[in-house]
Each structure stands twice: as C-alpha cells, then as structure tokens.
Amino acid sequence: MRQLKVVVADDNGLAFISDRQVSIAKALEKVYPLARHGICIHHLLNNVISYFKGKGLAGLISKASKAYRVVDFKKTFAHVCISV
C-alpha cells in the first residue's frame, strides 16, 4: 500500500473495493485513513448465501447493489432488514 500511495494520494473521495481480507483492511487504515473501504458484491453475496441460506436475502442484496438511486437502495435494503 505504501508503494501505491506514491502514485495515488489519500483522499476522502478515494474508495477501495476488496474481499475484506483483514490484512488489506489494516493496511488501508494505516496508509489510506481518509479513503473509504467497501466489499466486493461478489464476496458479499457469497457470505450472504453461506450465512443466511433459505432466507431469500441474496436476491435482495443483489437488487440493492444495482440500485442507481439512493431512494431505491434504501427501499430494497429495508426489505433486507425485515428479512433478517
């Protein structure tokens, strides 16, 4: 991450998407404290399928991840919260 920071400056408009590996999260906290860190939808869906089997959440999570408007995301995510 330190080598990357030579060419990509820390900024609050910067976002990293990963599989939420602990070592990546720690490195980002140290080297890019201003940047945001998100989880790849592929990895998130795998976790949802593994931990919430049979609850129908994967479809809702997928739909929420594809929402273009915040209001659409919030509406879909509200159904996720009800289902858990």
UniProtKB/TrEMBL annotation:
Record-linked InterPro entries: MULE_transposase_dom
Domain MULE transposase: 13-47
Pfam family for this entry, one: MULE
Name listed for the protein in its UniProt record: MULE transposase domain-containing protein
Organism in which the protein naturally occurs: Brassica oleracea var. oleracea
